[in-house]
Specification:
Shape: globular
Largest sheet: 7 strands, mixed
Structural class: alpha/beta
Helix content: 25-40%
């Protein structure tokens, strides 16, 4: 079958499209297929995008919040119209199975619908009591200004909407810099924003690698940086931003997540939750579990069932809905996972399942690597993020030990516990360090109306999705005196000349 023609990539600055062929986007399932060719933004173009967003900000901020929300209603209808085409393009470009890609488009749609729905609610202010009867006191949320949206390749449609949606609804304008691995789906998303009638300059698109992101983050005209990706990049963003006044960073930076399987777990549910947590999206979710922490009374039985199930998983063409998952995103990802597989062997773990033969030469396919080990602080493979189909089975004796094993990493993003005991649910809820927790579910499966973020190296206290409003707006106090004279709080005198008030 002939490959589709490459997409002619474009940037979008101040309502104008700019085409150039600087780098290519490849299909990771078939590296001979070019998905599209795209322009890498120059420093001048990054500056122009920020300036365009800055120029559009006053008009967009002054637009009725309800009218801003109605633009998202138009966007929602366009996403519904193009769901299948968007899912197919995403599968070709990032390698996720098309069923997952369709689910991601729906998740992005849900974010847009959420934003539209909140447009008519008073989420951006409160009336509070005053000490003085004649005063009305308010807290109000105001937009910061220009938001830089820097997003990953593994969720190239939903994650941008988690950031663009709340930012734009609250009156900010945006410069969107997607991953260089998935510029085509980002282009299609911005084309939909333009078609939906968002004013010129409210959404700007620049493509490129790390140097483009660096230029964007260093620009003092950017008030907020919303980022999802690696800790190393997130740390760099926060370091640069610390020197810039009037700058907020909302960062989600990966995890070393785990599923805890208790001795009272429903066994089949526990196996399926582990499989989905470890291998959906080929283990390339920031919330993927690379550790399954299993009670010692179950670990032998669990290991056999888990490995038997993993052997049956089909990793293949992402456009074939029958496959469980597709390839890794690129050769670099394959090499990284293989290096951790080798490291695990060198660290003395018991290998239960390993990929057969050399890596696929045509694409970036890799099958599961499963091993068993006792919990050891010295093991790198059970402490460092791998980002692929690589998982450890770790036995535990007590709930306290399980929580300690879970917490013994520098990350704290997602966890799941499989148990029938409500007391255990509460124990792990309170004792584990995470941003998102699940009971009798996989460690994956976020919903847009909940916060998405973590603690320790996984996040900086500003979660994404619905909770992003806290980062892209700032609270102000507004007090109105309805009296005909001045009365001060705390009993402060109003006398001007030092005499009695």
């Amino acid at each position: 079958m002939a490959h589709p023609l490459p997409i002619p990539g474009r940037s979008f600055i101040g309502g104008e499209w700019h085409a150039r062929e600087d780098f290519t986007s490849l299909n990771p399932a078939n590296l001979s297929e070019v998905v599209g060719t795209f322009p890498a933004a120059t420093p001048a173009e990054v500056s122009a995008a920020v300036e365009a967003a800055r120029a559009a900000f006053p008009g967009w901020r002054r637009t009725s919040r309800i009218l801003r929300a109605e633009a998202f209603d138009r966007l929602a209808q366009l996403i519904k119209r193009d769901t299948d085409a968007l899912a197919t393009l995403m599968a070709r470009e990032c390698g996720k199975n098309v069923t997952e890609c369709r689910a991601e488009v729906v998740e992005g749609l849900h974010m847009v619908q959420y934003v539209f729905g909140t447009g008519r609610t008073g989420v951006y202010g409160e009336v509070v009591a005053s000490e003085i009867a004649e005063k009305d006191a308010f807290t109000r949320r105001k937009p910061w200004g220009v938001v830089a949206v820097v997003t990953p390749w593994n969720f190239p449609f939903a994650v941008p909407l988690w950031m663009l949606g709340p930012s734009l609804l609250e009156g900010n304008t945006c410069v969107f810099k997607p991953s260089e691995e998935t510029p085509a789906i980002a282009l299609k998303l911005v084309e939909l924003f333009a078609e939906a009638g968002f004013p010129a300059g409210t959404v700007n698109l620049v493509h490129g690698r790390g140097d483009v992101g660096e230029a964007l983050v260093k620009n003092p005209g950017v008030n907020v940086v919303c980022f999802t990706g690696s800790y190393a990049v997130g740390e760099r963003i926060q370091q640069v931003s610390a020197t810039i006044p009037n700058r907020i960073v909302a960062a989600e930076m990966g995890g070393k997540n785990a599923v805890i399987v208790c001795d009272d777990a429903r066994f089949d549910l526990a196996v399926n939750a582990g499989i989905l947590s470890a291998f959906k999206t080929t283990g390339q979710r920031c919330v993927s579990a690379s550790r399954i922490i299993v009670h010692e009374s179950l670990v032998e039985r669990y290991a056999k069932a888990f490995v038997d199930t993993a052997k049956r998983l089909q990793f293949g063409d992402p456009l074939d809905a029958k496959n469980f998952a597709g390839p890794l995103v690129n050769r670099k990802g394959v090499e990284k996972v293989l290096s951790y597989n080798a490291l695990a062997k060198s660290e003395g773990v018991e290998v239960l399942l390993a990929p057969d033969g050399p890596p696929d030469a045509k694409g970036c396919f890799l099958t599961p690597f499963v091993y068993r080990t006792e919990a050891k602080p010295s093991l790198r493979v059970t402490h460092e993020e791998v980002f692929g189909p690589h998982v450890a089975l770790i036995p535990f004796k007590t709930d306290e030990e399980a929580a300690a094993i879970y917490n013994d990493t520098e990350y704290g993003l997602s966890m799941a516990v499989i148990t029938e005991s409500y007391r255990r649910m509460r124990f792990f809820r309170d004792e584990c360090e995470y941003g998102m927790g699940y009971v009798n579910l996989p460690s994956i499966g976020a919903e847009v109306h909940l916060p998405f973020g973590g603690v320790k190296k996984s996040g900086n206290g500003h979660p994404s999705a619905a909770a992003l409003v806290e980062a892209v707006t700032h609270k102000t106090a507004w007090t109105v005196n309805h009296g005909t004279d001045i009365k001060m709080a705390q009993g402060l005198t109003t006398a001007i000349d030092g005499g009695p008030a």
